[in-house]
């Protein structure tokens, strides 16, 4: 009888310890943006393209009662081209330039997450803040008429600020398959400020961002 009581006490102790544990998980997260990083005025002097992928890392601390804290580091490339037309003294004609700008975009969301209690597939909601920064910016400008040497800069005139912050909200499902968690999610971010903004309003970074992301954590 005493042996049975000892076993029951041990089981209770193990169960109590696991119920208050805060497991840590980490992995990768990837997806596609539903919105472009840059908005371009149709028929203007710019064309832009954003790589149709987002990739990075994810880490999460599981809290009691279905809550958790998640931190992501997500990266994508950006690129835009521009054509300039500048008036110079009569008899020579206009001065044409072409520019090519490339760089990287990092976003760092910090989210509070809540999972609903279902056995295998658990819906979740998350919300929090995110920090965004532009890295590795490089703009190459070439003059065509009259011929001018090519110049490069890491601070294009369209750059207003490299970093900004925003509010994040999203939702998805957490699918538990053996030791792997697969978490598809739709996420919305509202950035506080534009980072790229042309003086004429022909090119502007998007303050509203919608992404489809899938996390793979262990």
Would you kindly provide a written description of the structure presented here, covering whatever features stand out?
With 218 residues, the chain is mainly beta. It has one domain (21-217): Porin (Beta Barrel). Helices cover 8% and strands 64% of the residues. It is built from 1 helix and 12 strands. The protein has one helix at residues 2-19; strands at residues 24-33, 38-40, 46-50, 54-62, 67-86, 95-115, 121-145, 148-153, 163-177, 180-191, 203-205, 208-217. The strands form 2 sheets. The protein has an 8-stranded antiparallel beta barrel with strand order 1-4-5-6-7-9-10-12. Strands 2-11 form a two-stranded antiparallel sheet. A hairpin with an 8-residue loop joins β5 and β6. The longest helix is centred in the N-terminal third of the chain and has 18 residues, at 2-19.
Task: Walk me through the topology.
Layout: H1 2-19, E1 24-33, E2 38-40, E3 46-50, E4 54-62, E5 67-86, E6 95-115, E7 121-145, E8 148-153, E9 163-177, E10 180-191, E11 203-205, E12 208-217
Antiparallel strand pairs: 1-4, 1-12, 2-11, 3-5, 4-5, 5-6, 6-7, 7-8, 7-9, 9-10, 10-12
Could you name the key traits of this structure?
218 residues, mainly beta, Porin, 8-stranded antiparallel β-barrel, two-stranded antiparallel ribbon, 1 helix, 12 strands, 64% strand, elongated
Q: What is shown here, in short?
A:
The protein is mostly beta strands. The protein has one helix at 2-19, and strands spanning 24-33, 38-40, 46-50, 54-62, 67-86, 95-115, 121-145, 148-153, 163-177, 180-191, 203-205, 208-217. It contains 1 helix and 12 strands.
């Amino acid at each position: 009888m005493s042996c049975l009581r000892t076993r029951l006490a041990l089981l209770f102790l193990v169960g109590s310890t696991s119920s208050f544990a805060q497991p840590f998980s980490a992995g990768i997260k990837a997806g596609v943006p539903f919105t472009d990083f840059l908005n371009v005025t149709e028929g203007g002097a710019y064309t832009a393209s954003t790589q149709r992928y987002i990739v990075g890392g994810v880490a999460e601390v599981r809290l009691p009662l279905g809550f958790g804290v998640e931190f992501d580091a997500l990266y994508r490339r950006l690129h835009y081209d521009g054509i300039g037309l500048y008036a110079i003294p009569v008899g020579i004609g206009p001065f044409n330039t072409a520019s090519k700008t490339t760089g990287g975009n990092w976003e760092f969301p910090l989210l509070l997450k809540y999972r609903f209690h279902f056995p295998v597939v658990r819906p979740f909601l998350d919300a929090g803040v995110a920090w965004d920064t532009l890295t590795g910016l490089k703009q190459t400008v070439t003059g065509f008429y009259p011929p001018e040497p090519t110049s490069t800069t890491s601070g294009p005139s369209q750059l207003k600020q490299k970093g900004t912050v925003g509010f994040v909200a999203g939702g998805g499902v957490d699918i538990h398959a053996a030791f792997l968690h697969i978490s598809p999610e739709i996420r919305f971010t509202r950035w506080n400020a534009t980072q790229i903004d042309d003086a004429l309003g022909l090119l502007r970074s998007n303050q509203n961002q919608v992404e489809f992301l899938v996390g793979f954590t262990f």
